[in-house]
Amino acid sequence: MLKASHLFKVDFFISTVLALLFIGWFINSRSDSNIGKVDLAGSVLTCKKDEKWSNYQGYFRLDNEQYYTLKKYNSCDDFIAEMAGKPLIARYLKSNGLIIELKENDKVLHDSGFYAAGLGLVLIWFLTFALVRVPVRWLLKKTCIKTP
Fold first, then answer.
1. Residue 137: C-alpha distances to residues 2, 13, 36 (Å)
2. What is the pLDDT of residue 21?
3. Shortest CA distance to 59 belongs to which of 94, 35, 37, 83?
4. Terminal Cα distance for the chain, rounded
5. How far is 80 from 58, CA to CA, in rounded Å?
6. What is the predicted pLDDT for the residue at 113?
């Protein structure tokens, strides 16, 4: 039978490895090499309706690229009214076009929230830890050499 201290060491190891992986991914995804800057002043504004929640996601199309924010709108007209005709500058993730900061001149219109993303990362880390921990502990208990 495994001692509680051994199980604690295994839990600590799993949580440390997962934390290092998630923090490394988060830092890499938000590094300057993965963030681009674009002037959206001449972009074409389009929308897509979310069937499940009946709200709209706004998209900026410019030079065969598509950019978007996580903000949802009640109608496509609301998105177009808010964004049309403004000198917009965006910082976005190059991997998927997610706008992490949208500015009109020096006024921030949208910020994806570094802290909210960090909090989401902690939540995902905790759920992953919980899911990985169960089978690892089960394997340890099954393969443990029994001592008197």
1. 10, 12, 43
2. 92
3. 83
4. 9
5. 8
6. 67
pLDDT, mean of residues 20-29: 85
* C-beta separation of 87 from 105 below 8 A: yes
Beta bridge partners of 37: 91
Instruction: Collect all residues with Cβ–Cβ distance below 8 Å to 93 and sequence separation of at least 6.
Output: 29, 34, 35, 36, 100
The three-state secondary structure class of 53 is coil
3-state SS of 98-114 is EEEEEEECCEEEEECCH
Question: Helix axis angle, 114-143 relative to 4-29, nearest 10°?
Answer: 150
Tell me how far apart the alpha carbons of residues 12 and 116 are, in angstroms, rounded to a whole number.
25
Question: What's the chain's Rg over C-alpha atoms?
Answer: 22
Task: State residue 112's pLDDT score.
Answer: 74
Query: How confident is the model over 14-18, as a mean pLDDT?
Result: 92
| pTM for the whole structure | 0.65
> Is the per-residue pLDDT at 140 higher than 50?
yes
Within 10 angstroms of residue 47's Cβ, the number of other Cβ atoms is 17
